[in-house]
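[audit] Reproducing an earlier prediction to check determinism. Same input, same settings, fresh worker. If the tokens differ from the archived copy the diff job will pick it up downstream; this log only records the rerun itself.
[audit] input (284 residues):
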Amino acid sequence: MSRIAYVNGQYVPLSEAGVHIEDRGYQFADGIYEVCLFIDGRYWDLEGHLSRMERSLKELQIEMPMPKSALKTVMGELVSRNRLRNALIYIQTTRGVASRNHPFPDGVVAPALVMTARRFDLDQSDAKAAKGIAVVTQPDIRWGRVDIKTIGLLPNTLAKQAAKEAKADEAWLIRDGHVTEGASSNAWIVDARGVLITHPKTNEILGGITRQTVMACAQELQIKIEERPFTSEEALKAPEAFLSSATGLIMPIVQIDGKTVGNGEPGPVSLRLREAYKARARAI
């Protein structure tokens, strides 16, 4: 069965899906995106993702393409048409189609909306978490408003490519000597006291929805959190490190720049948080 996409009001085969050449997302990366999971017939962290979508659009002065209730209807229909029980759903909204000119177009321009859905293998993700992953460090060369989830991801792409070439799964981005976050995730360490440490929520990081849920899980498990910058050297001295993201959930990190973290195996705090996250997502 061919995959089905949603493109500006129509459900079309993915192979036939397309947008106008003067869509401002294509011309200027003038748009935002969200990614969320649909597992066993239930959305994970959906309200958080849609609220962040509203915020990102507001920061760019783009209108919501439709009310949140309508977005949920389209998402449900897309999952149904693709016959998926476990899915990764990608949502992208741009300012729309207008003659190429840097300033916002005059008059009313309808925001463009595209969605795709593809199979997500939770068992495969769990197997990866059981082994842990490697990360490499890269300079954080992104713009100054990474708190907006824009589609302008070239610096992230370059960092991800560097990770791939180093046979790693993710890149940790370094600014002023400190880890800000991953190229597509938030970065965490667990110190010798068992305290979680992660960069504070500023315009230097994207406020991850999974990050937010990790904090809620930590509170329930009575695990302390410190929001402060940390260095890669501090991470290598820590017993545990992990990342959080919608697609990775909580993913233990066992190697940074080719050097072992902790004992080289996923740590108990990371794995406990992963199970707590899954339980919470399934219960909401």
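[audit] rerun output stored. Observation attached for the diff report: The longest helix spans residues 268-283.
[audit] end
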